[in-house]
Design a protein that fits this description.
CATH class: Alpha Beta
CATH architecture: Alpha-Beta Barrel
Oligomer: single chain
Shape: globular
Number of helices: 11
Number of domains: 1
Helix content: 25-40%
Strand content: 15-25%
Bound molecules: ligand PBG
Number of strands: 12
Length: about 325
């Protein structure tokens, strides 16, 4: 045998499916997935989102039936986004105890009490200008906005939300929400902070889906997509503020950030495979360029490999129906 002959042969453990399964390092199950849904008030029939094939805005009046189907399919957790017909400058419908956000949480919990119902805690779906907070002097006013986030979080918790997910990227949002929740007796309600959330073009289809007509952009509050260290600082700062789960968003283009956050924290980490990532896979599959099921499996597995514990994905329902 020549000395150059390989002693190490990776193919030994790749020979059969059973061997491959034995040494597989990560796996994804329905237990790990959170399904984001869009709920619109004043709508009669589900409205397809053209840029997200297979995704519909669910009419509020059909929410209970839809949530029952979702739970019956095996989904364990939902993230709720409201499509509001009652927008104003501050997004006040979002902290009205009878507003869309509170109503959809109550309906979802009534329909399937065992589902983990997570409330996206932000204002952009409820503001007339589409920004994630109160505008003052042409800018989103940080400290007024976090006060309103606290109010909204308490209304969500009172409506039955199992988890609060602040996504407005205001400084101090986790502390403000933690104090507000604790002050109202919700000290056991966890916070999943959108902490490494980038000012990303991959949110394009979401803005259409959520009926969010944004004036301008979110660069003054979301992280610059070219900054990794800064995102890490913000995630660690959210941990210090008391966040229970840290999120990295978008997912696939930010696996490096996910892996770095994983090395720096012991908290659970969530990866959000956003609307643009979903659209890319769906449209490429429709064009016959890729095998959708395999690409979905591979992309979710990549989040696990990079260090995510939870995954938010619009593919959750397809997976629940078809299996992995
Ligand atoms: C609200 C919010 C957004 C998304 C989730 N929560 C939009 C944004 O920040 O512009 C995007 C989700 C997606 O694209 O799937 N702040």
């Amino acid at each position: 045998m020549s000395p150059a002959f390989p002693l190490t042969r990776f193919r030994r453990l790749r020979a059969t499916q059973a061997l491959r399964d034995l040494v597989q390092e990560t796996s994804v199950t329905l237990n790990d997935l959170i399904y984001p849904i869009f709920v619109e008030e004043g709508l009669d029939d589900p409205a397809p989102v053209d840029s997200m094939p297979g995704i519909f805005r669910i009419p509020e009046r059909k929410l209970a039936a839809t949530v029952k189907e979702i739970a019956a399919a095996g989904i364990r957790a939902l993230m709720l986004f409201g499509v509001s017909h009652h927008k104003d400058a501050d997004g006040s419908d979002s902290w009205n105890p009878n507003g869309l956000m509170a109503r959809m949480i109550r309906r979802a919990k009534d329909a399937a009490p065992g589902l983990v119902v997570i409330s996206d805690t932000c204002f952009c779906e409820y503001t007339s200008h589409g920004h994630c907070g109160v505008i003052a002097h042409g800018d989103v006013h940080n400290d007024h906005t976090i006060e309103n986030l606290g109010r909204q979080a308490v209304v969500a918790a009172k409506a039955g939300a199992d988890m609060i997910a602040p996504s407005s990227m205001m400084d101090g949002q986790v502390t403000a929400i933690r104090r507000a929740l604790d002050g109202d007796g919700f000290e056991t309600t966890p916070i999943m902070a959108y902490s490494s959330k980038f000012a990303s073009a991959f949110y394009g289809p979401f803005r259409a889906a959520a009926g969010c007509d944004l004036e301008g952009d979110r660069k003054a509050y979301q992280v610059n997509p070219l900054n990794g260290r800064e995102a890490l600082r913000e995630s660690l700062s959210d941990e210090a503020e008391g966040a229970d789960i840290l999120m990295v968003k978008p997912g696939m283009p930010y696996l490096d950030v996910l892996a770095r956050v994983r090395q720096q924290t012991l908290l659970p980490i969530a990866a959000y495979q956003v609307s643009g990532e979903y659209a890319m896979i769906k449209f490429a599959a429709q064009a016959g360029a890729i095998d959708e099921a395999r690409v979905v499996r591979e992309s979710l597995g990549a989040f696990k490999r990079a260090g995510a514990d939870l995954i938010l994905t619009y593919f959750a329902m397809d997976i629940a129906r078809q299996g992995f």
